[in-house]
């Protein structure tokens, strides 16, 4: 399973969201459960699942599905049209 | 991982898989899912309630579900409460009544150098060495103060003090080691103090986070999340930490295995004595004989701390004995085994036989055998037996002994250290009992007993007995220290322990009786009555009963109520109260209630002498 397939289910499961939640709705402003505690827990889960470690500048920006995806891409995690 | 698989062996497959997935992925979402799945089980499938308070100088809130999962897997219905961050003394000072919940079953204090002694991270900025040493002295006093505060406010609640792990993130480790007042020396002084407190005080235990962190290595820590949330553990570290805490608390609710049954050929030595002869066996200081030798050392240590050894070998006895007698490097002796079954019978049959002879349940046995066939047969015929090794390789077997938690205990008592000898003597006694008239035989044992009030000096042993005794146990109430303490404090209660001495030596405390005064009409209710299986058939129950009746009469109790609650294991005492002259009142399911009114004196057994006092007529 490629990273694209793994990131969305990971976030849906983490925030306990319905399976049909559109990715653009996965953002901190829209999810009351996404508090600072959840951010810490989510970072640990992401680092573990994708074998990456975020730098400080990235962490302050991890506020939505899209931003997480971008951060993972910058770390070299292949997404979307990549062949895996 | 193997340890947790054993813990959750009794869960249904759905829950087992959920837990294993959660542990393998270390993903918080999967951990929460596993927890939800465990909460769907019926209470009896989940184990006993275990309320645990954790007080910490760093932030454990982000790993709360991980802690909950680990403790639930013991298995237990764990209720974890986190105290407010870095407010150890403040939290302990609150009286139990001021808090919404009562006292916990265990309390844990976790601290680390970053908060407890931050000056040690920068010794040259903090008056190294004199001022820093003075600062360490203050920390030592603080540790002691926390313990005193706990004992005042939550007396009887087991307290687990963490040791201080070496920090991972700091500069100049070479210099830190060069002076006894430096960073490492300072931490070591604090840890030494913690070990000393646990040694000296009853009910205070060590949660050795320092040794755990050393085993885990740097990977347990994550500086980023520490800066972000004052939570220093990596995903892998979180789970390891939680499982480590769970393992340390486990002896509070799960009795350890009492017996290790093991094979001989290719286990205690390399080779098969019946085939290869003694000359063909491998045992000694060279590889691979040194692996078997090390295994023997482990077994002797287990024996010396109270685990009985049973030898199960398919061999001619003469061949097996020859190995013991003739191999020059043999450390284990023939007599180190409480029971030896060396014949050609099935091992599961021999194990059942050994369990009967020791008056112990098969679920108190662990088993080691190099043969896949023997292990599989044991698994199928007696699933209650814990099989420790999974392969014929002796090094693997040795590792399984190093890794297992089956023999974990928080304290090794005098009784534990004497257990092997006691059982050997008992086996000799059983032979004697067949030969003579029973009373003459009992008299010949020259038994004398002391009746003790239950209190701090014998509490550890009494709680252990309440937790472990199955056969001679009328109600099988597994009181924790906290529950026992509240019985002791209840007005008019009678809480007695019987210490036995015979011509073979001091046998320690072997019987316990708890009775509580009910509010109305001077009625005493027997809450618990139990006798250790080491002292069965010797009349100590009559002695303790007579002592209790005497106390009851002294305090003018009018009537005495008791109950027999039947379990799968206590058939031995079905008729005990009938024999002691109580009247059956009613039977309700598993429970039969009895009454004694008025409370007439009871004759003390003629073959036992009571030290210092006399009871009854």
Describe this structure in words.
- The complex is a heterodimer of chains A (84) and B (617).
- In chain A, 52% of the residues lie in helices and 0% in strands.
- The mean pLDDT of chain A is 88.
- Chain A has helices at residues 3-15, 36-50, 56-61, 65-74.
- Chain B is built from 25 helices and 18 strands.
- In chain B, α18 (372-381) links the parallel β9 (365-368) and β10.
- Chain B is globular and about 80 Å long.
- Chain B starts with a helix and ends in a 7-residue tail after the last strand.
- The chains are: A mainly alpha (84), B alpha/beta (617).
- The A-B interface holds A 10, 13-14, 16, 36-37, 39-45, 47-49, 53-54, 56, 59 and B 25-30, 33, 61-62, 222, 224-225, 228-229, 231, 234-236, 238.
Question: Which features would summarize this protein structure in a list?
Answer:
heterodimer, A: 84 residues, mainly alpha, globular, B: 617 residues, alpha/beta, 5-stranded parallel beta sheet, 25 helices
Annotate the secondary structure layout.
The complex is a heterodimer of chains A (84) and B (617).
Chain A: H1 3-15, H2 36-50, H3 56-61, H4 65-74
Chain B: H1 2-7, H2 13-25, H3 28-39, H4 43-46, E1 49-56, H5 64-72, E2 77-82, H6 88-93, E3 106-110, H7 113-116, H8 130-153, E4 159-162, H9 173-176, H10 183-200, E5 204-207, H11 209-216, H12 223-229, H13 235-253, E6 259-262, H14 273-276, H15 289-304, E7 308-314, H16 317-326, E8 339-343, H17 347-358, E9 365-368, H18 372-381, E10 386-387, H19 394-403, H20 414-435, H21 438-444, E11 447-453, H22 459-468, H23 481-489, E12 494-502, E13 505-517, E14 523-531, H24 540-554, E15 559-565, H25 576-579, E16 583-588, E17 591-596, E18 608-610
Parallel strand pairs in B: 1-2, 1-3, 3-4, 4-5, 6-7, 6-9, 7-8, 9-10, 11-18, 14-15
Antiparallel strand pairs in B: 11-12, 12-13, 13-14, 15-17, 16-17
Helix pairs in contact in B: 2-3, 3-5, 5-13, 8-10, 11-13, 15-19
Please state the structural category of chain A.
Answer: mainly alpha
Care to count the β-strands of chain A? 0
Query: So how many helices of chain A?
Result: 4
Bulk shape of chain A? globular
Q: Radius of gyration of chain A, Cα only, in angstroms?
A: 12 Å
The coarse silhouette of chain B is globular
Largest sheet of chain A: none
Give, in order, the helices and strands of chain A.
Answer: HHHH
Percent of residues in β-strands of chain B: 15-25%
Biggest β-sheet strands, sense, barrel of chain B:
8 strands, mixed
Determine the structural class of chain B based on helices, strands and strand pairing. Answer: alpha/beta
